[in-house]
Amino acid sequence: MAGKRTIEDIARLAGVSKTTVSRVLNHKPDVDPATRERILRIIEEQSFVPNIAASGLAGGRNRLIGMLIPSLTWPLIPDLLRGIAEAVEDTPYELVLYSIKDEDLERDRSEVINRLLATQLTAGLLAVFPGPASEQLTRLYKQGFPIVIIDDQIEQTTPWVGTDNTAGAYTAVRHLIKLGHRRIAHIQGPPEYLASHDRYNGYRQALLEEGIIPDPDLVLVGDFLPPTGRACASTLFELPLEKRPTAIFAATDQMAYGVLTAVEEYGLS
Prior knowledge:
It is built from 10 helices and 8 strands. It is α/β, with parallel strands linked by helices.
């Protein structure tokens, strides 16, 4: 069950020392990239949550910042981690990762968050694309627990950092329309993420401004990753010729890579 593994277990499964696992958890640079990737994969597979209750510095003040992420394997996560680690590097704080995958049951997500609180992580929490965990995080914030949401705003009162997903999608689709496209498909991200809805709204707004009624058959749902981009594009390419799109707006670059794979497989350009 989630959270019952120890750092010794992770070290044994990865074939490394406890010190190496600890350095990965604390984002230290002097770990071989292949070893780091193997350890992170095992941490996620085992739903490992580190016990940091005793990690506060002398004087009783905790210097740990939790980072809640949807998956260690999402393509955008390494860049986010790198940027946040650089910001934290010259401070007395350390980062600790917590991974909650979409397929985790609600009780498992709640267990991870509850254990996070039990560690007395008083410095706060950065939550990246919290999705299904949003409601619980909102309650925690209202109870006074420091939280900042990254790119998936929960509600207006919760501190949030992100991009204007609606405007970005609108601009992309407007560009396709200016190129002469009228049947523009959209591959959405998972519906539990606000960014998915915002990007769809930008897509829809751009179409409606040009008098184009969005076709439900041209809107499919992916998971932000290449395989679903490829699968959704293949579905679109199997439509009757008169119903096929002439352009596809994918919600992420990763799904767009999958679309390009399907384009090559179908001999399109």
